[in-house]
Design a protein that fits this description.
- The complex is a heterodimer of chains A (100) and B (487).
- Chain A has a domain at 7-44: Histone, subunit A (Orthogonal Bundle).
- In chain A, 37% of the residues lie in helices and 4% in strands.
- Chain A has 4 helices and 2 strands.
- Chain A has a two-stranded antiparallel sheet with strand order 1-2.
- In chain A, helix 1 (7-16) packs across helix 2 (23-39).
- Chain B has a single domain, classed as Alpha-Beta Complex (Amidase signature (AS) enzymes), CATH 3.90.1300.
- In chain B, strands 1-3-2-4-6-5-10-11-9-7-8 form an 11-stranded mixed beta sheet, with helices on both faces.
- In chain B, strand 7 (264-268), helix 9 and strand 8 (297-301) form a beta-alpha-beta unit.
- Classes of the chains: A mainly alpha (100), B alpha/beta (487).
- Chains A and B meet through helix 1, helix 2, helix 3 and helix 4 of A and helix 10, helix 11, helix 12, helix 13 and helix 14 of B.
């Protein structure tokens, strides 16, 4: 079986997922995720070396559409819901520590 | 008197026939439903938004078309509610999450376009567990929905608002989405019909994605015939969804009365044993007996790998969710919490915008996909998915449809289940079909010891909807009559 998920794992995963957790939440989620993963041990224990994975239930391959010009969302409508927009683009705060 | 008893409404089949014939006005039909919303919605909370003005305008337009000699379509004048994770142009779509605050979609989901084109009248957007993650509709940022059959009970989830809207007579039919049971389980709890179609039969374009290889849109209705009518209206190939099946959808309505004589029905051993309430099991046995009495051959069948369904699902669905929900970052729409840098803005927005269950699944999925764990968790779960498909295929060599309970119990009390894993166990009977991509539906069949509705699940192979609906129609005809059924 796998090693039990730790509070360090949870803190790391939260950081990867761009979520901030306080220490109490880390403890709560660690216990809950451990219980769920423990339940999944029946799957981990199966010998499935010769079984191919299924990623999609109804196999369709090479789904292509005709290369035709169609209607797209107008720029103004695409930006209408943006928290901040400027000059026809989405505006965000500083990236990579440089001045905007 | 419960909201359900107050909400006795007419069927979509009868409404559409009368409106198309000019015998009833769509406006009158709508006003009767709006009056029931006025009477019951404050207690039930089925809706995030009731679109009264748009509904009245749509109903008036239907009546004008009928007066002008036009046919508005197979759902003419039928009030419909739409789960609030389906995009509606010009109407807020929230997924019952704070992170989509203020977002108004610039386009309609394909299923929404299709129900408008069929003449349906939009009464509103229904409440759900945030991003469709839950089995009780208690995980909504806007508060829980209550079960119209008994207001102390949950309606099930995640499409609890859509199930409650139909059970309460607020709309004749509704649309939900089903990733692990989110249509069938609330249908069972609220005593209505709920259908998860074959993966790819109904377009997902405009459905806010939770787990893309499992999600499917489907109907709620008070009768099997209404569900068939609505599924025919939304099914069929859509070029905007690359996973849409490029062939003609099965004909359902014209085969509903074909009966079940000679049909081979298998009762799934693994879903009719441990963990299922005795009163629910008793209804399933009675349902099987009723099908046998109607001429079907009924036998037990083992589908061993379904026992691993829950474990595989709770690795695959969160993995896909962690990827799909990465798009909610405060940049292009929805909530933004200001911070000095973009990375801090994203962290602050996601932390403030997502509820605990969504955070839990994002973290579980991120963990299952992370370096060192991918093979043990996500990869292994995908292989189990293959086993489940194989075992179902073997069963369908001998049987046309399969039978099981929809849920292990009847509806539980609000607040009764706090532990996530215990909540997930609600879905043990419904999850395997999502993993296989097959259709399944829940049909009300009597009540449990507590007097609450029991749902019997009919499962079928991919694109086997016709036999599934014939079986459901036979069960409906044989079902014990219970209070609150909107017949």
């Amino acid at each position: 079986m796998s090693t039990r998920i730790t509070s360090d794992d949870v803190a790391h995963v939260a950081q990867l997922a761009r979520l901030e957790l306080d220490p109490a939440q880390v403890e709560l989620f660690t216990g809950q995720l451990a219980a769920i993963l423990e339940h999944a041990e029946d799957v981990e224990a199966l010998d499935l070396a010769d079984v191919a994975p299924t990623s999609h239930p109804y196999p369709l391959v090479n789904v292509l559409r005709p290369d035709e010009v169609g209607a797209t969302l107008p720029n103004a409508e695409a930006l209408a819901a943006a928290p901040q927009a400027e000059g026809g683009r989405f505006r965000v705060p500083t990236i990579l520590g440089e001045a905007p | 008197m419960s909201a359900a008893e107050a909400g006795s409404a007419d069927t979509a089949v009868r409404i559409a026939a009368a409106v198309r014939a000019g015998e009833r006005s769509a406006v009158d039909v709508l006003e009767a439903h709006l009056a029931r919303i006025d009477g019951g919605e404050a207690e039930v909370h089925a809706f995030n938004t009731v679109t009264v003005d748009a509904a009245r305008a749509a109903a008036a337009a239907i009546d004008e078309r009928v007066a002008a000699g036009e046919d508005p379509g197979p759902l003419a004048g039928v009030p419909i509610a739409i789960k609030d994770n389906l995009c509606t142009r010009g109407v807020a779509t929230t997924c019952s999450s704070k992170i989509l605050e203020g977002w108004v979609p610039p386009y309609d989901a394909t299923v929404v376009e299709r129900v408008w084109a069929s003449g349906a009248v939009p009464v509103g957007k229904t409440n759900l567990d945030e991003f469709a993650m839950g089995s009780s509709t208690e995980n909504s940022a806007f508060g829980p929905t209550r079960n119209p059959r008994d207001l102390t009970k949950v309606p099930g989830g995640s499409s609890g608002g859509s199930a409650a809207a139909v059970a309460g007579g607020f709309s004749a039919i509704s649309l939900g989405s089903d990733t692990g049971g989110s249509i069938r389980q609330p249908a069972a709890f609220c005593g209505v019909v709920g259908v998860k179609p074959t993966y790819g039969l109904v377009s997902r374009y405009g459905l806010v994605a939770f787990a893309s290889s499992l999600d499917q849109v489907g109907p709620f209705a008070t009768t099997v015939a209404d569900a068939a009518l609505l599924l025919e209206a939304i099914a069929g190939h859509d070029p905007a969804d690359a996973t849409s099946i490029p062939q003609e959808a099965p004909k359902l309505v014209e085969h509903l009365d074909d009966g079940v004589a000679g049909l081979r029905v298998g009762v799934v051993t693994e879903l009719t044993g441990e963990g299922i309430s005795p009163d629910v099991l008793a209804r399933v046995r009675e349902a099987a007996d009723a099908l046998a009495a109607a001429g079907a051959t009924v036998e037990e069948v083992s589908v061993p790998a379904v026992a691993y369904g829950l474990s595989a699902y709770y690795l695959i669905a969160p993995a896909e969710a962690s990827s799909n929900l990465a798009r909610f970052d405060g940049v292009r729409y929805g909530l933004r919490v200001d911070a000095p840098t973009t990375n801090e803005m994203m962290v602050a927005s996601r932390t403030a915008g997502f509820g605990d269950e969504v955070k839990r699944r994002i973290m579980l999925g991120t963990y299952a996909l992370s370096a060192g764990y991918y093979d043990a968790f996500y990869g292994q779960a995908q292989k189990v998915r293959t086993l489940i498909c194989r075992d179902f295929d073997a069963a369908y060599e001998r049987f046309d449809v399969l039978l099981s309970p929809t849920t292990p119990t009847t509806a539980f009390d609000l607040g009764a289940i706090a532990d996530p894993l215990t909540m997930y166990l609600n879905d043990i009977c419904t999850i395997p079909t999502n993993l296989a991509g097959h259709p399944a539906m829940s049909v009300p069949f009597g009540t449990g010891q507590d007097g609450l509705p029991v749902g019997v699940q009919v499962l079928a192979p991919a694109l086997g909807e016709q036999a599934m609906f014939r079986t459901a129609a036979a069960l409906e005809a044989a079902a014990p009559r219970t209070t609150g059924a909107s017949k």
